[in-house]
Amino acid sequence: MDADVYEEACVVFPSGISAGSGHGPSSDTGIRTTQGSEISGEEARFSPDISTADVPNGYIPGVGMGSPGQSQVLTSAILKTISVLTVVVLNICLLGTVIFVAVTVLDLKLSVSQLDQKISADMSDLKMSVSQLDRKISVDVSDLKLSVSRLERLTSTLTSTQHAVISAWPRQVIQGPIKQNAVGTTEGLPGTVEDETTTSAHLKATCPDGYKMYREVCYKVFDTYKTFSQSAETCRADGGTLAMPRDAGINAFLYSLTTELGSNDDFWVGLHDQGQEGQWMWLDGTALGAPGGDGGNYSAWAADQPNSFTGEEDCALLHTGWYDHNCQSAEGFICQVMP
């Protein structure tokens, strides 16, 4: 039994020192109680009369007195474990924080990207609307200038007619008194054949220099090369617009004017689809094929035209037929004005 006690004490005290005061196994690992009496280890282990109050601090039943270093080792191990756990928890919290920040930044970048795309789309729509508005204003201004030019010519014609009538009236009075012929009609009043010839000479409409008339509209071919918009501006400066061959007769007349120049070039006419691809419009704002031509369905497109071959062919050229072409290309052009 003493050998067993000694082995148990060696397990508790790695240094090999037993719970007693001596070295090696001993038959008596006695202890002193709190009352001052000494009892053996066997008595301490098995005696029911020994209470925990009689056992001094540091005594381990069956082993003997414990070493103070045991508590320190245990406390140190617990502190180290707590420190390691604290570091692990802190690292986990830090990792969670980093992940949260990364996800937040990613969401922010995605939101900014979506906002940029929406702003780009809105700006594109705005630019398109402004461009369409500019084109409409340009067409309206062109129509206004054409109307003003026609009004000025009409005013000039009326003024000439008024002068002719006023100048003819005294001449009729001087020629003699009013006479009545056998059939009861008056003679000597304005309205005779001579006066009508004079008046119609004043009323006869004439075209500007270089223009030729067809169906009371004057046309002129320009063999100078300009873009579509520059050509339209030149025509507006003459008081007109780019020619609009709405029927086969006008189209044939314009083609004959181009052949008179001995030129095999193409010439701009006032037809385009700059507002919306595929919807061809005349410069006066009416759609191609609208009533006013041959049954309202006339067009003279060449074979496989229009084809928008380059993707930016929005203006029409006249040659043997009509061809769509890039509006920024420099070509000849045909103007029309009212006499």
TrEMBL record:
Biased composition (Polar residues): 24-38
Gene3D superfamilies reported in the protein's UniProt record: Mannose-Binding Protein A, subunit A
Residue spans crossing the bilayer: 82-108
Pfam families for this protein: Lectin_C (PF00059)
SUPFAM superfamilies: C-type lectin-like
Domain annotation C-type lectin: ranges: 214-336
Keywords annotated in UniProt: Disulfide bond, Lectin, Membrane, Transmembrane, Transmembrane helix
Annotated PROSITE patterns: C_TYPE_LECTIN_1, C_TYPE_LECTIN_2
GO molecular function terms noted in the UniProt entry: carbohydrate binding
Protein's name according to its UniProt entry: C-type lectin domain family 4 member M-like
Organism: Branchiostoma belcheri
SMART domains, sorted: CLECT (SM00034)
Keyword DNA-binding: no
InterPro entries: C-type_lectin-like, C-type_lectin-like/link_sf, C-type_lectin_CS, CLec_Tetranectin-domain, CTDL_fold
Region annotated Disordered, chain positions: 17-49
